[in-house]
Write a structure and sequence with these properties.
The chain is built from 17 helices and no strands. It folds into 2 domains: 122 residues, no CATH class; 165 residues, no CATH class. It is globular. Helix 3 packs parallel to helix 5 and helix 12 runs parallel beside helix 15. It is mainly α.
Length: 338
């Protein structure tokens, strides 16, 4: 008997990395932000995260059992989805919000497409988008004051997040309102330390840029993510917000405020870099990041919501097949047809 050789598609380079190892590595990188969420918003934040994780794992396990497929909840992907979904929720949401969001994320955004590796959009963001469309009040009103800070990050305004304050200021048309909000915006621009550390209101996992960057450094060190997507994403937001995001005409915006405020750091490093729903080519990742940045700034400045990170990533997820197709590198020896 002659030995049989099996030929498969590239790549043929072996590695000791595996899906569970990568997923548990991502969870490890999210520990600082998780601890920060519990510190700033209280033990309720921990319960929301736990409910989201358990619901995501239970949904995946039950559906796979019903479909008579192998149960893969031990690979950690459902747990990551649950954590990221919870990170996109306010601290005061009812207990059923993370449960429904996780069920939708796994039951609609992942399993029907074939499970991990086949979903066209990030499941956690899809679950968040569903919750935002169904119960917008629960996801857009922030009442929990972070420990050691205020919801806005400044003392004069306590009942609106930094991006909400900025959005209202941009929409002000009365002279006295414009003057008042110009003062507020200047104070927002002076609150970098609160935005960086996390002493501001917002969703559980998005407020502390410092803790998120610590986790991101670990992912970069482990080479689980590439810098092309987050860097192109953040630089695009910074550039466009500097040009169009000011209240005194072009080139009067504050790019650092727009980078630190909202969920940009969380989205850029932990969701836009999703291996399944982001491009595989180097050029494609840069295009993907730029597209996310453009949509984020458009929603922030002229859209109906103060934040646009979630929708920008979801919309760009849908363009990934085209981006991969048109940025595919030339095959060695391939002759271009005329």
């Amino acid at each position: 008997m002659e030995p049989k050789f099996y030929v498969s598609s590239s790549p043929h380079i072996t590695d000791n990395e595996s899906i569970p190892k990568i997923m548990y590595g991502v969870m490890l990188s999210l520990i600082p932000a998780t601890a920060g969420a519990i510190y700033f918003f209280g033990i309720r934040a921990g319960w929301i995260i736990l409910l989201s994780i358990v619901s995501a794992m239970a949904t995946e396990g039950i559906l796979q059992k019903l479909m008579k497929k192998s149960v893969t909840i031990k690979d950690g992907s459902a747990m990551v989805t649950g954590i990221l979904l919870a990170f996109n929720l306010p601290a005061e949401v009812p207990w059923w919000i993370p449960v429904i969001g996780s069920v939708f994320a796994i039951g609609i955004g992942k399993i029907p497409f074939g499970g991990l590796g086949y979903n066209p959009m990030n499941p956690a963001l899809l679950g968040r988008a569903f919750l935002l469309a169904s119960w917008p009040t629960h996801l857009t009103i922030f009442k929990t004051i972070p420990r050691g800070g205020t919801i806005s990050g400044i003392d004069v305004i306590t009942n609106a997040t930094p991006l909400n304050v900025f959005k209202i200021a941009k929409a002000s048309i009365l002279a006295e309102q414009v003057q008042d909000y110009d003062v507020a915006i200047r104070q927002l621009y002076d609150s970098y330390s609160n935005l960086f550390v996390g002493r501001v209101g917002g969703c559980l996992g998005e407020t502390s840029a410092l803790l998120l960057l610590i986790g991101a450094l670990y992912l970069i060190y482990k080479r689980y993510i590439s810098l092309k997507v987050p860097v192109s994403y953040i630089l695009t937001v910074a550039l466009l917000s500097w040009i169009f995001g000011g209240t005194e005409g072009f080139f009067s915006g504050d790019p650092l405020f727009h980078v630190l405020a909202g969920g940009l750091i969380l989205g850029a490093f932990f969701m836009a870099t999703d291996m399944v729903t982001s491009p595989v080519t180097a050029k494609g990742r840069i295009i993907f990041g730029i597209g996310c940045g453009v949509i984020t700034v458009i929603i922030r400045l002229v859209g109906g919501y103060p934040e646009g990170v979630s929708y920008s990533i979801l919309l760009m997820n849908l363009t990934v097949p085209l981006i991969n197709r048109y940025t595919r590198p030339k095959v060695f020896g391939e002759v271009k047809r005329s």
